[in-house]
Amino acid sequence: MTLTTTRPSSTAAPVARKPAPSRRARVPYAFLAPGLLLFTLFLAAPIVYAGYLSLRKVKVSGLGLGSKSRTEVWAGLSNYTRSMTDPEWLPSVYRILGYGLVVVPAMLGLALLMALLLDAGRTRPGFSGFARISIFLPYAVPAVVASLLWGFLYLPRVSPFVYTLDKLGIHAPELLSSSWVLYAVANVAVWGGTGFNMIVLYTALRAVPTSLYESARIDGASELAIAWRIKIPIVLPSLIMTFVFSMIATLQVFAEPMTLKPLSNTISFTWTPLMKVYRDAFVRNDIYAAAATSVVIAVATFVLSFGFLKLVGRRAFNQEES
């Protein structure tokens, strides 16, 4: 009898191949593509182009009348130097700082107060929704329209407020004069922005479980103590977020003073840094200096926003060092 032995096969097990990406895996990128395309075309590309223009200038040959008499050449940092040494630059910066010191605390303070009052349950159930819509509605009004409306209310000859105060024997201040114009412009921003910030803070308050407030009331805490020791610390991250948004909007204020400018001689073409950009680009036809100023404003906005978040973010958002 013959015995036959079988040797084990020496062929190795086939290596598993990675499955090809399915269509489902590509779906998120398909949804993100329109947003990324719009971001690139209308935000990233203009920023890069503005940075490019800020480093260029026009060289004029001869009388500058020929087709090739004006050529674009490298300018280095000369546009930044010329823009920062403009006599109108520092006054506009100081003016916008004063504007921010008025607008941001007043707007966020009113927004927080209204959010706390609405959350306290002191308004009737049917009136609560009407109150929220009424407070938020000014935010839906475009800044140009709101500035025009308030501008005519500021003019002594057409303002019903001035007329009523005169009938009562009260002298109304000229709100578009040099002493009051900053507060007049700030009032438009506060009126329009308080509602949005109130909705953000009120939404954060509504997300807190009511059992937390009930426990505090059982312990004998008053509504004021609950607001100060529980509600405000809870909405602190939202309050910081609205502060950053308000600070960015303050540095970029343009529509309100530009709309009120024809109504008053106290608002110049360089009342704010962005108005100076507009003057350089469209009045003086110097897009290179305007681009340099725009880059400076963008960098200042980023530094202030990022610096503030780094300063208070760890405490407000409970971040821990890695």
From TrEMBL:
Pfam family name, one: BPD_transp_1
Entry keyword annotation includes Transport: yes
Keywords for the protein's UniProt record, in alphabetical order: Cell membrane, Membrane, Transmembrane, Transmembrane helix, Transport
Protein location: Cell membrane
Primary localization: membrane
The keyword GTP-binding belongs to this UniProt entry's keyword annotation: no
GO biological process, one term: transmembrane transport
Transmembrane feature ranges: 27-52, 96-118, 130-155, 180-205, 234-255, 287-309
One GO CC annotation: plasma membrane
Topology relative to the membrane: Multi-pass membrane protein
Source domain of life: Bacteria
UniProt domain ABC transmembrane type-1: residue ranges: 93-308
Membership in a protein family: Belongs to the binding-protein-dependent transport system permease family.
Protein name: Carbohydrate ABC transporter membrane protein 1, CUT1 family
Species for this entry: Actinoplanes regularis
Taxonomic placement: Bacteria, Bacillati, Actinomycetota, Actinomycetes, Micromonosporales
